[in-house]
Amino acid sequence: MNFPLVGEERLEDPGARLRLLWEQRNIVVMPGVFNAALARLVQFHGFDALYISGAGVTNSLLGLPDHAFISLPEMAQVCNYITSVISIPAVADADTGYGEPLQVARAIQQLERAGLAGVHIEDQVSPKRCGHLEGKEVIPTEAMVAKIKAAVRARSNPNFVIIARTDARALEGLEGAIERAKRYVEAGADAIFPEALQSPDEFDRFARAIPVPLMANMTEFGKTPYLTVQEFAQLGYKMVIFPMSCFRAMMKAAEQVLTALKQLGTQTPLLEAMQTRAELYELLEYDRYLQYDRELAQA
């Protein structure tokens, strides 16, 4: 039996695959994940790529807020778990690069080895804050330029995608964010992620000014108005992430289960809302692993 063990399904050149998607699709929709099971589910439902949320990993793995608590080794390990069980490209949140240019270079090496298609690095002061909260600060443009140059130089595969995220809209206005983005492109960024833009007009003006692929963040309960994937595509964006949508829905569903257990002493009223055992086993390819185990025992 030609059985692909965990890790053998990983894309050989995920960055090249993501770049091809930019050419083939009007826009690449990237649901946010924080573990390998959810990544499998995203692929199972036919998405072409996914996003590994720094907030999602920090909240779920550590039980802490998105305030630069996750370390590079922890994030790289989670990314490795995820990319080992999918065959679609994944882009990860690398926060501020885990330090200054030297640390950024090491982060790129570690995250590229984890099987990612690319990462985004932001221009916030460390420790960073959630991009849709008040109180953010950004580093000088030249400091971010140095980080981007370090990231570009450190990657072993030129297809590995370096996305520069700017949080400057909240502090320097839209024009300030655009000027920063232009500098980041000159420094070698393959794509730009303008965080927390506040209207379709702002997204449009940003896209008209920046000549490389753009990533949009369609998070919930933030500063960005709710736009559809098609609306982002019409505005010129090549990627749209939904970083915490599944996380928030899963947590709310868990609250409902806990409430039922507390009040009723049974989960049975919620069975129809649950993924069944058969559905989970299908997602995890349970039968295939059992069959391979039997074949190994007979060898």
Molecular structure report:
- With 299 residues, this protein is an alpha/beta fold.
- The chain has two domains: 14-245, TIM Barrel (Alpha-Beta Barrel); 252-298, no CATH class.
- 48% of the residues lie in helices and 12% in strands.
- It contains twelve helices and eight strands.
- An eight-stranded parallel beta sheet has the order 6-5-4-3-2-1-8-7, sandwiched between helices.
- Helix 2 (36-44) packs parallel to helix 4 (72-83), helix 4 (72-83) packs parallel to helix 5 and helix 5 (101-113) packs parallel to helix 6 (141-154).
- The chain is globular and about 60 Å long.
- The mean pLDDT is 94.
What layout of secondary structure does this protein have?
Layout: H1 14-24, E1 28-33, H2 36-44, E2 50-52, H3 54-62, H4 72-83, E3 90-93, H5 101-113, E4 118-122, H6 141-154, E5 161-166, H7 169-186, E6 191-194, H8 200-209, E7 215-217, H9 229-234, E8 239-242, H10 245-264, H11 277-284, H12 286-298
Parallel strand pairs: 1-2, 1-8, 2-3, 3-4, 4-5, 5-6, 7-8
